[in-house]
Every structure is written in C-alpha cells, then in structure tokens.
Write a structure and sequence with these properties.
Number of strands: 15
Radius of gyration: 23 Å
Bound molecules: aspartic acid
Structural class: alpha/beta
CATH superfamily of the largest domain: Acetylglutamate kinase-like
CATH topology of the largest domain: Carbamate kinase
CATH class of the largest domain: Alpha Beta
Strand content: 15-25%
Largest sheet: 8 strands, mixed
Strand order of the largest sheet: 3-4-2-1-7-9-10-8
Number of helices: 14
Order of helices and strands: EHEHHHHEHEEEHEEHHEEEHEHHEHEEH
Distance between the termini: 33 Å
Length: about 450
C-alpha cells in the first residue's frame, strides 16, 4: 500500500527521550517516516533502572517548596538532564530553565510544575527535528470546571493541521483562562490520541520502550510473547487491569475517530509492534486468550446483614459511602446476605476508618470485615475467556499450584475474567495462568 500521502502522529514516551543518544533514535524514526507530521512527547523518563523521571522530580521539587525544604538538589538533577538534551539539539534553554526554577520557587500550582517536563522536552525535540513547537495550552482545551473540552480542542487542532510539521507537549492543556491542567499520570498517550483525532491522522504511532503489548508483564512472568493485534476493548481491559503499556484512557479519542494505534519500540522499531484496531477485527487474533494482566494491593470490605436480599437500596447506600469519599470501587461480588466491595488500597488514602464509620451508620450491617491491602487482581482477557474450558483451566491450574482463589468476577464483560488471589501469591498466579493459557 502506498502510504506516502498518509499522516501519522507519533508519540514518544519518556524513556524514548531520556538521553541524547535516544533523541538521535527519535530523529532517525521521524526523518525516515514521511507520514510523521506531528510529534507528541513526554517529559524525559528513566535512562536506566534506579533513575528518576523528570515529572517525579518536578513533583518532588513542588512538594519540597510547599514544605519549606530546599529544592536546589532536585532542580539540579532536572536541569542536568535537560542541558544534555539541549546540547544534542543545539538549542539554548537557560532562560526556560530559569523560568521553571523561578516558578517552582514561587510556589506555582502543582499542575503547572508537573507540566514543565513535557513543555521543555517538546521545545528541545522541536529544535532537534526542525519542526515547529506548538504549546499544548494553544490546542488542548479544558472547561472552566477542569473537564477535557473535546469541541474546543477539535477546533484548535484543525488550525494546527494547517501549520505543517509540529511538536506538541503531551500530558497537559489549559483551562479557558490559560491555567494549566494535566491529564492523569501517563497522560501524554492521551494527548497523542487527541492530536491524532484532531488532525485526522491515518494512524497513531505510539513509540515506547517495548515492542507493543506482551501476553503478560515480562517483569513478572517469563516466556511472554508479543501480541500482534488487539481490539480497542481488549486494550481497555488489559490496561485497566495493570498492563503498563498504554494509559487506559488513550483509546477513547482514536476509537471514536476510527484511527488505529500502532505501539512500537523506539529502540527496536523494526521489531514490529501491536496494532490496535476497531473491534470488528476481533477474529484476526488467532489466539483465544489474548493476555493476562494484574495488580496487587486491593482491600476488600465485606458487609453482612441477615435478610440483605430483601432490603431495597442496601448496595446503593454502601456504594454512596465510597462515592462521598471520592473512592473508586473496582468490584462488588455479593451473595444472599453479604456484599463485598473491593477497592485499590491506594484509593483509601488513610480514609478506611471514615469509610467503616460511614458504612456502620448508613447500612447498619450485622458485621463488617475488612481484609486490608491483601488481595491481588488478575484479569484474563480474550475472546474465549467465558468458554467452559478456559474457566476449567484457570481453576485447575491455580489449584495444582496450591494458590487459593479469593474471588472470581465473571460475566459482566464477555472479554475478561477477574481472579482475586492473595498478594503473596500474585507472581506465582500470574506465571501459572500465563503458562496454562498463553503458551499454546
Ligand atoms: N510525564 C508524565 C508522567 O510521568 C506524563 C507521561 O509521561 O505521559 O506521568
């Protein structure tokens, strides 16, 4: 197929621009692919294990200022990373760096500080590539209430599309009064998708440090393989369950616009990657089980009350307690007289006692049991996941490995089964399930 007239948006993740050598790799990719007309970048990420991401350092500096601790050392590390990149791109950044330092010192808001990594890396990348820099404040819009403003963004991006090759910082945009607002962590992926939809790209190339999605996280499981194709829905399931390749919200803008995403490695671009395409292509994945993903550290709150099944509004009152405390609920398995609510432990953020009291007052249960920070959740994702055989394999393989199942959530999605195991069994359970389901 002749792709010469196509337009691609390429997003480069933090690890892809963490060092001057890697900036060169980005240059090679962009200059050899004529489709790439728009580039979205993250802030520099980790250059090696144990290194710090620039965004984490900026947030640390912000916290240091707000608690009266000197931030000089933290800022020196940030400045050093940017200076090395700027040297490679032959661009002067002293004025920009000083403006950032001054902004942090004068206690500018958190989102402003957090956004400066993407801002400066986009400026440097634009100079390096010979592209125009377009600030995200000029084209990624939020409403005054802080919600992403799709229509205003679409209009602004239409004018971006007329300006020729450009680099846009990921992760943030602006409220109508110009105040900077960030997306959730990992949000440059979202910016890339929004830009791809806004400029009407043919494809969204997402360059990261791995050649696409694997059947499981290789840091947890051995013997994983690349997944060549995924549907948008499978990506949602895997990303939400813990696959750390793409920010889970990324798919929405491109799915709506019918634009495929190709995830590739900046370090091995020839190795191919994962193509994420509309749901109709479901049958193209030859494997029945697409992959598995999981996360540790969930808390389960179980309420018991005799006659719960006859009572109207019990679950609603229980959920309202979590909603009032702005705590997202992940799962809610129930039986005749009991109801469990499963939440990520980090969501509770020290509010467990408040939640317990709220449940006591509003639901008057006979008993509340809290299994704090004990459970890991694993999602098995694939088009045959609800088949009898898959379920039998899940249960029997875990049994053979002596891993007790604490919860099974099944049926609400045709594409995934969620299994709860103890945190301590997480790695073993991931390896066991992967071996049983993904290696055939
Ligand atoms: N730099 C931001 C983060 O570390 C956003 C991103 O990398 O996508 O979360």
């Amino acid at each position: 197929m002749n792709t010469d007239n196509q337009t691609a948006v390429a997003k480069f993740g933090g690890s892809s621009i963490a060092t001057p050598e890697r900036l060169q790799l980005v240059g090679n990719i962009v200059h050899t692919d004529p489709r790439i007309k728009y580039v979205v970048v993250s802030a520099p990420g980790k250059a090696q294990q144990g290194d710090n991401k620039v965004t984490d350092l900026l947030l640390l500096a912000h916290q240091e200022v707000s608690t009266g601790v000197p931030f000089t050392n933290t800022f020196a590390i940030i400045a050093q990373k940017f200076k090395a990149l700027a040297l490679e791109a032959r661009v002067a950044i002293e004025v920009e760096l000083e403006a950032i330092r001054y902004g942090i010192a004068s206690a500018k808001p958190r989102d402003w500080v957090a956004s400066r990594g993407e801002y400066l890396s986009a400026k440097i990348t634009a100079a390096f590539l010979g592209f125009t820099f377009i600030d995200a404040t000029e084209c990624i819009c939020f409403t005054a209430g802080g919600k992403f403003d799709k229509e205003a963004t679409r209009q602004k991006l239409q004018s971006v599309a007329k300006q020729g090759p450009a680099v846009i910082p990921g992760f943030y945009g602006a409220l109508p009064d110009g105040t900077i607002k960030t997306f959730p962590r990992g949000g440059s992926d979202i910016t890339g998708a929004i830009v791809a939809a806004g400029v009407g790209a043919d494809i969204y190339l997402n360059y990261t440090d791995v050649p696409g999605f694997l059947t499981a996280d290789p840091k947890v499981v051995s013997g994983t393989r690349q997944i060549p194709r995924l549907t948008f829905r499978e990506v949602r399931e895997l990303s939400y369950a813990g696959a750390n390749v793409l920010q889970a919200e990324t798919v929405f803008p491109v799915r709506e616009a019918g634009i495929p995403i190709l995830i590739l490695s900046t370090f091995e671009p020839k190795k191919g990657g994962t193509l994420i395409c509309p749901d109709q292509s479901l049958n193209e994945n030859p494997h029945d089980i697409t992959g598995i993903a999981g996360r540790e550290n969930f808390t389960r709150v179980t309420l018991e009350r005799a006659g719960m099944n006859e009572e109207h509004g019990f679950a609603e009152r229980a959920l309202a307690v979590f909603a009032h405390n702005a705590i997202s609920v992940e799962h809610m398995p129930s039986s005749v007289d009991s109801l469990s609510i499963v939440v990520a432990h980090s969501e509770l953020n020290g509010r467990l006692e408040t939640v317990r009291q709220g449940l006591q007052t509003d639901c008057a249960p006979d008993n509340i049991q809290i299994a704090q920070n004990e459970m890991a959740l694993i999602a098995v994702v694939g088009k045959s996941v609800l088949g009898e055989e898959t379920l039998a394999v899940i249960v029997s393989s875990l049994r053979q490995a002596h891993i007790p199942i604490r919860m099974i959530n099944l049926g609400s999605s045709k594409l995934s089964v969620i299994i709860g195991v103890e945190n301590a069994s997480f790695k073993n359970a991931m390896q066991t399930l992967h071996q049983a389901l993904c290696t055939k």
